[in-house]
TrEMBL record:
Residues 552-633 form the AMP-binding enzyme C-terminal domain. The modification N6-acetyllysine is found at residue 633. Belongs to the ATP-dependent AMP-binding enzyme family. It catalyses: acetate + ATP + CoA = acetyl-CoA + AMP + diphosphate. Residues 40-95 form the Acetyl-coenzyme A synthetase N-terminal domain. It comes from Polaromonas vacuolata. GO terms for molecular function: acetate-CoA ligase activity; AMP binding; ATP binding; metal ion binding. Catalyzes the conversion of acetate into acetyl-CoA (AcCoA), an essential intermediate at the junction of anabolic and catabolic pathways. AcsA undergoes a two-step reaction. In the first half reaction, AcsA combines acetate with ATP to form acetyl-adenylate (AcAMP) intermediate. In the second half reaction, it can then transfer the acetyl group from AcAMP to the sulfhydryl group of CoA, forming the product AcCoA. Its EC number is 6.2.1.1. Acetylated. Deacetylation by the SIR2-homolog deacetylase activates the enzyme. This is Acetyl-coenzyme A synthetase. One of its GO terms (biological process) is acetyl-CoA biosynthetic process from acetate. The gene is acs_2. The lineage of its organism: Bacteria, Pseudomonadati, Pseudomonadota, Betaproteobacteria, Burkholderiales. CoA binds at residues 205-208, 325, 544.
Length: 668
């Protein structure tokens, strides 16, 4: 474990001088579900006073139980905590059936806008019917409670239907982002021993038709996927795709043949609803395992609390279902809360960079939730072309804005607040992780005074703290490690197939083995105790809000026949937050000039093939060697400096060959 990297210190300094404060208006406070700081403080005090009672009340009030629970939190086998374990319920029932016979049933669940701008609507009743019939089809194929199903789908209604249908029959889904390669997909299918893969023939993004089914075929052909008995294909476009007889079928055909009614399979509260793979600092991606009840409870509650959801809201979270944000705030939270949500198939820059703003106007979006990376790139586009500036769209329907995935720099925050929110809409900067299931530290729109660049305060019941490496509390103003001291219902339950790694990664022995280590550095403001996240403390990069492990990229690089050794670091980037820089030693002589450029391109494409385009290094630097300590450890801190173009001030006398630093500094 290392200290917050020096790369973050300038960031901290610029944040510390941030002194603008934006309290909520009196009207916002009085209309909000959590109305004012006294209401927030009272909830926190309730959780402090009667932790289990606090959560039990919420779980009874916000979920429909087939069998009510008696047990709340079980801490007898830390860190394998359980919540509501003797209760039974079904997630799909809670998202769909629960609304039938209420005014929500005829409300739009989803407003879908396709890549090419076609709009369709689906009510809760119609979505319930669609999910039920597809769930019957899965059952007909023999998919059973507890089986794993991999979903490799575009952003479509069918993607959500696939997830909900799995939940309905108690199958555990594992969604793989459509940008991951055949090899990444194969690794996930293998690790999860999936019995079925649900995919689409193609996906439409930015006017392009991109294959998905062909990648599934390629992934399965890599071997080790014998568990897969069925591949179900959503026909997104008329273009034909290869179909393997006896294994592959079309979603519309199997659905048409299936019974329209599918009784939900009720499962224990701790039944794994899904496994979602994410990058860690070492080794292969980790299958983050989530529960049914605790996860769903928090998905629903954070919709109500963080977004102050009201019945007339139109909610739009721009995240893909391949990431945790798309799980909690597209596939589950909005449905559990009975919201109307927008789902968008395409990309923010097609057919032009005004697409998001035009869509907010078109669908009268009132709550908009996106990533700082998107905001920063749209600021740039709006500066360059007045035709795509948000002032060309009517954004008056907006009432709350949200940010997720990476720290939002105060400049981008201010632009978002002014140009999108018209200085009227609170910006909720939500800090959380794949492992936390839902928001952890975030402002509440009707209570918290906002400070640009700060995620402010933990939600009620979330016992966040900043500690040193032995788990001791640090005073406000001192930077340290972000931890959560008590379990919470939506926390990660395990790493699929790897309980030892689960313990080691998140519950370090040095801290007693019971408190959750987030993997981020943070500091609390001395005056108001507000949290600021200073970035990852491990070898995980955050590129455009996507988590990437440096080790994963290094292993991909050294798998190339030309590569002897590689080290990957992050470099701050104005647009993507961090950019990937790879330092490479080849088995042959160090290439220069055009040859170097050609090999760099080949390696970049190779990484794209091995992991996915999001993992392609922005820069590749070649050297005769890498800088190492006497004991042979790669000096990553030095490489981070070289990647940033900094002058080397560190002592380099231990280096075998200091000249290699000049080589590595050379950009091709
Ligand atoms: C970072 C995404 C600062 C953080 C929901 C975390 C943030 C990682 C914020 C998790 C935020 C996420 N401010 N940093 N509001 N939100 N992060 O698992 O480093 O894809 O550990 O979950 O993103 O990324 P993940």
């Amino acid at each position: 474990m290392s200290h917050p990297s020096s790369a973050n210190s300038t960031n901290i300094e610029s944040l510390l001088v941030e002194n603008r404060v934006f309290p909520p208006s009196a009207a916002t406070v009085s209309a909000a579900r959590i109305s004012g700081m006294p209401a927030y403080n009272a909830m926190c005090a309730h959780a402090e006073r009667d932790f289990e009672g606090f959560w039990a009340d919420l779980a009874r009030a916000n979920l429909s139980w087939k069998k009510p629970f008696e047990q709340v939190l079980d801490e007898t086998n830390p860190p394998f905590y359980t919540w509501f374990a003797d209760g039974e319920l079904n997630a799909s029932f809670n998202c769909l059936d629960r609304h039938l016979g209420t005014p929500v049933e005829n409300k739009n669940a989803i407003i879908f806008e396709s890549d090419d701008g076609k709009v369709s609507h689906i009510t809760y009743k119609a979505l319930h019917a669609k999910v039920s019939q597809f769930a019957s089809a899965l059952k007909d194929m023999g998919v059973q409670k507890g089986d794993r199903v991999v979903i490799y789908m575009p952003m479509t209604v069918e993607g959500v239907v696939a997830m909900q249908a799995c939940a309905r029959i108690g199958a555990t889904h594992s969604v793989v982002f459509g940008g991951f390669s055949a090899k990444s997909l194969q690794e996930r299918i293998k690790d999860a021993s999936a019995v079925a893969v649900i995919t689409a023939n193609y996906q439409l993004r930015g006017g392009k038709e991109l294959p998905l089914k062909a990648i599934v075929d390629e992934g399965i052909a890599l071997g080790g996927c014998e568990s897969v008995k069925n591949v179900i294909v959503y026909q997104r476009t008329p273009t034909a795709c290869n179909m393997v007889a006896g294994r592959d079928s079309f979603m519309h055909e199997v659905t048409a043949k299936a019974a329209p009614v599918c009784e939900p399979v009720f499962v224990g509260a701790e039944h794994p609803l899904f496994v979602l793979y994410t990058s860690g600092s070492t080794g292969t991606p980790k299958g983050v395992q989530h529960s049914t009840a605790g996860y769903l409870l928090w998905a629903k509650l954070t919709m109500d609390w963080t977004f102050d959801l009201q019945p007339s809201d139109v909610f739009w979270c721009t995240a893909d279902i391949g990431w945790i944000t798309g799980h909690t705030y597209v596939a589950y939270g909005p449905l559990a809360a009975g919201a109307t949500q927008v789902i968008f198939e395409g990309i923010p820059t097609y057919p032009n960079a005004g697409r998001f703003w035009q869509m907010i106007e078109r669908h009268k979006v009132s709550i908009f939730y996106t990533a700082p990376t998107a905001i920063r790139s749209l600021i740039k586009a709006a500066d360059a072309d007045a035709a795509v500036h948000p002032d060309r769209s009517d954004l008056s329907s907006l009432r709350i804005l949200g940010s997720v995935g990476e720290p939002i720099n105060p400049e981008a925050w201010m632009w978002y607040y002014k140009n999108i929110g018209g200085e009227r809409c609170p910006v909720v900067d939500t800090f959380w992780q794949t492992e936390t299931g839902g928001h952890m530290i975030t402002p509440l729109p009707g209570a918290t005074a906002l400070v640009p660049g700060s995620c402010t305060l933990p939600l009620p019941g979330i016992m966040a703290a900043i500690v040193d490496e032995t788990g001791h509390d640090l005073p406000n103003g001192a930077g340290g490690l972000l931890v959560i001291k008590r379990p919470w219902p939506s926390m990660i339950r395990n790493i699929w197939n790897d309980p030892e790694r689960f313990k080691k990664s998140y519950f370090p022995e040095e801290m007693g083995g019971t408190i959750y280590l987030a993997g981020d550095g943070a500091v609390r403001n001395e005056d108001n105790g507000y949290f600021r996240i200073t970035g990852r403390i491990d070898d995980v990069l955050n590129v455009s809000g996507h988590r990437m492990g440096t080790m994963e990229i290094e292993s991909a690089l050294v798998a190339h026949p030309l590569v002897a050794e590689a080290a990957v670091v992050g470099r701050p980037d104005d647009l993507t937050g961090e950019a990937i820089v790879a330092f490479v030693v080849l088995k042959r002589s160090r290439p220069v000039g055009d040859e170097g450029k050609a090999i760099a391109k080949e390696l970049r494409d190779w990484v794209g093939k091995q992991i996915g385009p999001i993992a392609k290094p922005k820069d590749i630097r070649f050297g005769d060697n890498l800088p190492k300590t006497r004991s042979g450890k790669i000096m990553r801190r030095l490489l981070r400096g070289v990647a940033k173009g900094e002058a080397i001030t560190q002592d380099t006398s231990t280096l075998e060959n200091p000249a290699i630093l000049d080589q590595l500094a050379e950009n091709l």
